Predict the structure of Actin-like protein arp8.
Amino acid sequence: MIPGYVTTGTPQPLSLNISLELASGNLHLFGCNKTLRYLHNITSSIHRTSPNMPPRKANKPSKKDEGLARTDNNLKNHSWPVVYPINQKNFYTDYLKRDDQALVWRQRSEAPRPERETKDRGLMPDGEPEKDGVGTDGKDDEEHPEVWGSRVIIVHPGSRNLRIGRASDALPKTIPNVIARQHTQSEWEEDPDPRPKRLRTDEESKEDQEDVSDNTPHRRTRGSSRKSASVAEKEPSYVESSFQSLFNEISQELKTQMRQNKRRVLPNSREGVINHNKKYVPENIKEHNDPYRAEWTPVEANLLHFVGHDALHIADNSLPRYKLFWPLRDGVFNEHDYVSKRRWHEDVTVILRESFLKELNIGPGDYEGLSAVLVIPDLYDRVYVTEMLDLLLREFRFSQVCLFQESVAATYGAGFSSACIVDIGAQKTSISCVEEGMVIPDSRLNLKFGGDDVTTTFMQMLLTNSFPYSDINLLRRYDYLLAEDLKVKYTSLNEADVVVQFHNFHVRAPGEETIKYGFKTYDEVYLAPLSLFYPGILDTNDKLRGRRSLWERSYDIYDDVPNDPVSLAQNSLCRPAVTTTAATSNEETDIMDDTNIGVNSRPGSTNLTAPMVGGEGAPKTPHADSPIPEETPDLPEGPTTTIVGNSYSKAGESDPGDPEPEVEALPMLPLDLAIIESIRYAAKGDEKRSKDFFSGILLVGGGSLTAGFNHLLEERLIRQKSGLGNLTISSPPRELDPQVLVWKGASVFGKLTSTNEVWIKQSEYDILNSRVLPYKTLWMW
């Protein structure tokens, strides 16, 4: 059949005879045996003669003639790479398995040899001249040889003090870590409640509000309490009743202990002290008769800020007013006094820059040729480390920066390879076990009490015993300095000092005459530093206030879980077995397997070691990703406060607006039990390691300077753990001040020539930012 034409009759195969008949343009095939060639000729003639056929189109040139035909030139159809499937039976990758694949190690290997040899000229030996000296004959280098470590700056920031210095210096420069800025009111005018806290009547509160509202320059700096001697005699000193009950209980415990040690306890000693203090009449001293009158910082220049000692010695009633800002509080960011991160950065930058210039004679143009060692806490916040590192490398533009932990620095300063470091600072106490130059992670403890809490407790005890200077307020600068001086002079942990003694002191207020006071003390000089072993008596309401209001917790970018370092010893302080009931407070905390937490072992005594409830910023419920167990015990009836995980909450309460609140811990554990807990997690059941740590306890920090502290700690450790063997409480060797031991150890580390691998250079930080830290830290970041 020919397409396009109609056929009639029965179709026959080609092998039959074919005949043609043209009729009205139709083609009919009949049986006739013809060849295919003949059929082709017939069909061609039909196309030429058929009137219904369309006209034949002209022949088009082929693609080959036009040059469009494809030739075999091995060109791909597209530029996308072809990914072939992996042979899963045998495949291998070496991604990030070689040192040359890490930027920091590749840059170090590719650095030219002269640069590696002179990477830190500040580490050159004494008297060795530089290789690229100014003079061609080396005379300039011989006249001014560089001291070993003179180009390395050690920075150790603390809650109260900032210690800086060159690695070549014998001792650091200590500057109060505070800045005073112009403000409408000073800090004691903003807070009407004095420190320490008292029980106040409604009339006294009204008088204080009226007095604070008076901002005239001639008003009294002590408020309405600056009264005559006759009125002051009749004015009682009210202290919180809860504190008084705890104070009396610990005092009875001390008397029992002294009787057991065959020491004489005079009856009615405290009553005699109270009667004397009530009747004492202060004495006014004219300014020209006072050889030790205070020198206050002049503010006539109307400067915007003062730093360090100058800030602390600004008069509280100065015009214009200045307010003190402390960038660090309780060992972390002070987020309560700051409203923005920018202001915090400005204050820290100003404090460091002016301290470098005034104490070390280092100007802004000298930073690029210097290296810096930053001392950080053992149990740190990642946000704190990255903020300080970014400040030193990008704001100050140091050539390179190294991070060093406090406990390891203490072992370097003391010359120990392994020890249990107990660092009692101003506002925090850290305990860590160091073995062969490395901190054992699970042994780290961070307790939120220190020397400032001892000062506050000492003032509360004095006020309980009718302290003649009843108007003392630690929010005022001169009163704070006075309280610190009284604590350093009179507190002691020797039982021989628990006798009635007479002391005197001078109150030197700005713009007023010096007043001389006399007072008697009894057991408060011993019980105030003893509060480190009775943390239940400490005022912890202001601890961690404003926490996480500016800086959020650090989270892992892959798993979105908190990645701050954790410690099993720290987590054990907040086990969900502590329930403090309003009706009964004699609940023991099961923290250690074989150690009794209760300070008072006699029946019916109050357990003073239960963790205190956090401040205003305490969370309500635990974080979902908290590593601490979150089961809660059966709650008794009545109002209770339950500690769950790392948080404190009222039973049955929750915060609907914050489904995953921040976990904040406020561990309050006696110091001796905290040391045992840290060593227990460090030894992990190994008795030999446990004895090694107990025989190498090193006390560091200003809080350990109290007389008799070493002997009392040793006695309490032996009492808690029998069979310890050779227990040794060590002090810094070579009569070195324990306050500067950590800085001294960091200076030793900064002068080592074999520590080039831990220095973070500017070029590395600009590319990798904080991702460079896993390659540049001596511990697991």
User: Anything to note?
Assistant: The chain has 24 helices and 25 strands. The first strand starts at residue 18 and ends at 23. Residues 103-143 form one domain.
